[in-house]
## 1
Amino acid sequence: MPQQNNQHRFDQIKVEASPISLFETPIAYCQIKEGDELMNELEQKIRERKAADEGLRRSNIGGWHSDTEMIDWAGDAAQRLAETAVNVAKRLSHFKEASPDNYQWLVRMWANVTPSGGLNHLHTHPGNLWAAVLYLDMGDDADHPLDSVGGRFYLEDPRFPMSAMKDTSFRLMGVNGTPQQYETEMNLTRGSLVVFPAWLRHGVRVYTGERERISIAMNIDARRKA
Ligand SMILES: [Fe+2]
C-alpha cells in the first residue's frame, strides 16, 4: 500500500505549519460596573413578582421561572438592562448590506429563582439571534467556592459530535496549543452578564447551596426596519 510505504518518509518531510482558527463562536463575557442600584432594583421587582405569581416551567427543574414579560413588570431597570444586552449583541452582529442600527431589536426577559436542588437542562433559545443571562445573586457563592455548591453555568461545543467519535478521548488541538473541551463552565459572580448565540446549547448544573440564587435571562432578536 503506497500509504504505508510513505508513512515513514512523511515523518522526515519538513513542513511549515500555520494553524488557523475557523468558525468562531463569539461569546460576550461581561461584568456590570457600578450597577448595584440597578441590580438591587431588579432583585426587588423579582421578589415582588415571585410573591404574586406562580411562574412557568421551562428548562428549569425546581425553582421559580417568571413569565417572559419582565420588561413590562420590572419597569425602567429591566428596560436599561435590555438596552445594555442589545448593545452588546449589536457589537457581535453583522448584517449584509445594513447596519445593526437598521434593525429593530426585540427583547423578552424573565427571572429565575433557584433553590437548593435546582438546575437548568441543556437547551437553546430557538427563533432568536442571541441569548443572555445576568446573575444578581449567586446564593451561597459569596461564602463558599462554586465547587462546593455547584450550580455552574456551562456552554457546549456546538460541534458536539466531534467528542462522540470512535475514540471519545479525542480532542481538537486549539491554535493556542491546548486541547479544546466539548463543554466549558463559566466562572460567574453577581453582575456577570453573558451574551451568546441563541443556538448555542447551555445549561446550569444542580445547585446545592442553601440560599436561593437569582438570575435574569433574555431572548434577543432583530427585525429589519421597514
Ligand atoms: Fe437559556
## 2
Amino acid sequence: MSKKSIVIGGGIVGLSCAYFLKQEGHQVIIIDKSNMEAGASYVNAGYLTPSHIIPLAAPGMITKGLKWMFNSSSPFYIKPRLDLDLMDWGLKFKRSCSHNHVQKSLKVIKEINVLSKDLYHDFDNLPSMNFHLEDRGVLMAFKTKKAEVAEGKVMQEAKKLGLDVELLDKNQVQKLQPNVDMNIEGAYLYRCDSHTTPGTFMEQLKQYLVKEGVDIHKETTVTSLKFNGNKITEVQTDSGNFVGDEVVVATGAWTQQLLKSVGINLPVQAGKGYRMNEENPTGISMPAILMESKVAVTPMKGFTRFSGTMEISGVNHNIQKNRVEAIAAAATKYYSGLKISQTAKDQVQCGLRPLSPDGLPFIGRHSLFDNLSLATGHSMMGWSLGPATGKLIAELVAGKKTSLDLTPFSVERTYG
Ligand SMILES: Cc1cc2nc3c(=O)[nH]c(=O)nc-3n(C[C@H](O)[C@H](O)[C@H](O)COP(=O)(O)OP(=O)(O)OC[C@H]3O[C@@H](n4cnc5c(N)ncnc54)[C@H](O)[C@@H]3O)c2cc1C
C-alpha cells in the first residue's frame, strides 16, 4: 500500500531512506534544517568499510579516552562537562566496552557493511547516477610494532569472516602506490573496502530523488513531533506543519533532542571530525588509515582528503585549530615530501558523527509508536551503512521481512 512518508534529515541516511521508500512506491518528503551541502555526510573520508568490524565500544577504549581526555589535540577526545545525557551515554559506552560485545558485533557489522557496499554498486549501475566509486581497498598503514600487532588481531577476525585482507611490507605498498613514498613499516590491505567522493554522490542522489518526485524541504527545522496515542500525527517545523502516514527520523547527531518531544530518550552523542581537502597533487592513489595517528587519507575526485579526530564535545561546529594542525602534522610524517597547504587548512570543515553508546546503529521502530522509524547512531560507519539502512527502513515500513535481522540495531536495546 502506498503511504505518505516524511523523512526528517537529509544526510546519507535520510536520502537513502527516501530512495528506498520511493522504490517501494511511497510518496516521500524530506525535511532538513540545513542547506544540505555540508555536515558529516559531506566531510567524511568516503570509505565503504567491511573492514571496520570492531565497534567503537571495545576493550581498552575507556583507558585511551581517559589518557587522552586532557590532550585536546589527541585523536579521541571527550571534553569533560556536566551533562546528564553525556554521563548516561558514557556509562552505557563503558558497559559496552567488552570482549563479549565485540565478539557479538563482528558478524553483524560485516553483514550490514557488505549489504550496503553492494547497494552502492547498484547505485553505480543506475544510468542516471555518475559518481566516484573505486574498489582499490584501504591500507591500514603502521610505523610501529604495537600497531602492527593490534591490527594483526583484527585481520585474523576479518579473515575468519571471509573478508579479503593481506599484510604487505613497505615495498609492496610502494608498488601499489608508485608516485609517493610512505614512511611506514608496512600495511594491512583490506581489499574488501572501497572508497568514494561523498559530495558527488550526495549531489547525484539528491538530483535523482527530485527527478523521481521526492519533495525536498531545505532550511526547514523540525521543532517537535505531535502524537495521539501510538501515532505520530504531525511533524511541526519553523515553516509549517506536515502530516504523513509514516515518519522516519534520520537526524544524525541531533536526534536525542528531537525525540525527547515524544518521550523517547535515545542515547546519541556527537563525535566531531575534521577534513582538509588538498587540491595540489600529492601522488597518493591508495586510501589509507594512518594507524598510530588515526588519520584517514582518501584520494578523491580532484583532491586528496585528510580527515580525523573523534571529539565528543557536544553538538557544535566549533573548529579547534590545534586539532586541524595535529591532523596535518601526522599526515606529513607518513608521506615523504607531503605538504598540506595553508588553503587546505583554512578551508577545513567539520561534521558530527551520530554516536550510539555501543557503536552499532539504531535502525527500527520504537514500541511507543506504530508509524515512527528511527535511523541513526551509525558512528564511524554512517557513510558505509547509509544505503543498507535505507533499504531496511523501507522494508520495515512496507511490512516486509527485512534483509537482515534488526535485533542488534534495536532502538530499545540494553547495553553490556
Ligand atoms: C571526518 C569524518 C570522517 C568520516 N569518515 C567516514 C568513512 O570513511 N566511512 C563511513 O562510513 N563513515 C564515516 N564518517 C561517519 C559518517 O559521515 C556519519 O556517520 C554519517 O554521515 C551520518 O549520516 P546521517 O545521515 O546519520 O547524519 P547527517 O549527515 O548529520 O545528517 C543529519 C541531517 O539531519 C538534519 N537535521 C538534524 N536535526 C534536524 C531537525 N530538527 N530538523 C530538520 N533537519 C534536521 C541535519 O541538518 C543533517 O543534514 C565520518 C565522519 C566524519 C565527521
## 3
Amino acid sequence: MIRIEKIWRDVLMQTKATEPSFLSGRVNAYYQRSKDPRTGEHFIEGLSPAEGDIQLVSNDYLSIAGHPDVRGARIAALEQSENEMLRSGVFRFGEDSQCVFEEQMADWLSAESTLLSQSGWSANVGLIQSIATPEVPVYLDMFAHMSLWEGAKSAGATPRPFRHNNPGSLEKLVQKHGQGVILVDSIYSTSGTICPLNDMVDIAERYGCILVVDESHSLGVVGERGEGMVSDLGLADRVAFRTASLSKAFAGRGGIIVGSKRHVEYVKYESFPSIFSSGVHDYDIAGFIAAMEVIKKGNARREKLRDNSDFLRQQLDKIGFDVSASQAQIMSLVPGPECETIRLRNALESRGVFGSPFCAPATPKNRSLVRFSVNASVTRASLEKVAEVCAEVRDVVQADQWLSTTKKSRTRPQPKFYVPEPSLAM
Ligand SMILES: Cc1ncc(COP(=O)(O)O)c(C=O)c1O
C-alpha cells in the first residue's frame, strides 16, 4: 500500500504547475493505465530479448522480410534513389512505379483498381473519412481495428457497433438506422477470429450498404496465391472496398485501398492522408513489387504457417489455455486485468518467450492479453519450447482463475485454421 502511494505521489509530483487540467487529466490517465500500480512496471516495456529467445511478435507471417528478392529489390532501388522526388502520392500517376505496383496489385486481387497508402492506418482512416458523412451510420464489429473506428470519427459519423462476428446483431442495427457503411476485419488482430464474410456481404447487399473489409491479416496468408479472403471466397465483385496493411505478410511499411476505378480515383484525391501526407519511398515500392511475386508463389510458406499455427494452438489448448476462438496465425492468452497480463508477460519473458502485450485502447479495458503471432519459419522445437514455458507458468500466473479460462468450460474449443477451398489443401 505504501509502495502504491509512493508511485502515485511520484507520478503526480511530475505534473507541471502550468499544465492545464485537460492535459494533466489525460496524462495522468495514461500513467494510471499503463503502469502496474503495485510495482510501477510499464505495461509494454518488459525485458529485451536475448539471443536464442523465441519471439512470436512479428507480423511478417510468411517470413519474407529477409528474402533475397525482396531485400535485393529494395537495395537496388535505394542505390538509385539520389533523384527520388519526395512528395504526396497524388502527384504520382502515369508510368510512375507506384502506379505499376497499384496495377499489379489490382490484377492479383481481381479488382479494378488499388491505391497505395503510407500505412494500413492511413488507408483505413482516409477511406472512411472519404466515404462517410456525419449523417451516415457506420456499423463496426466491436473488434474492428482502431483505424476503422478512427476513420468513422474523422468522418464525423456516428459509430454503431455490433456484436463480434454476429450478422444478426448487425442486421438489427441496419434495420433500425438504415443504409450505411459496414466495417469488418477478415481476420481479427487480437483474437485470430475470422469474419463470416458471406453473411456480411448478404446483409450489405440486402440493405444497400457499403461493405469495407480490412484484409491486413489475410492478405498473403489466405488463398491459392495469397490473394486474401475476399478473393478466395469469390466475393471480389461484391465487396465495395478492401483495405490492408502491408506491414504484415508484405513485410514492409505501407497500406492499400482496393475498389472500383471510379471509387479509388475519388479516394486518391479526396482522402486527407493521401493528399496531405508524403507518399511511400521508391525502395518500399520496389520491395512490395518483389514481395508480391514471392507471396504469389508462397504456398509452401502458407502451408508451414498453417501447420505451425495449428500445432501451437493445439498445444496451448492441451495445457488448458483457451485459444479456441483463434482460427488463424494469431492467438492470445487473455488474463484480463492489466496487472495480471504484466505478470504473465514477465513469467514468459524471464523464460525466454516473447509475445506482444495488448491493453486498452487496443483491447477493451480489463481484457488485456499477450498475443502470439506465429510465422512460417519458426521451428517445431521453438513452438514446443513456447508450449513448455506456457505449461510451466500456468500455475504461476493462476491461469485457472482467468475469466477466459473459466469460460472455457462452458464453450467447446474448435481449433481450426482457415482452410481455403479447396486450393491450399493440396
Ligand atoms: C487489422 C489492422 N488494420 C490496420 C492496421 C494498421 O496497419 P499499419 O501498421 O500498416 O498502420 C493494423 C495494424 O496493426 C491491423 O492489425
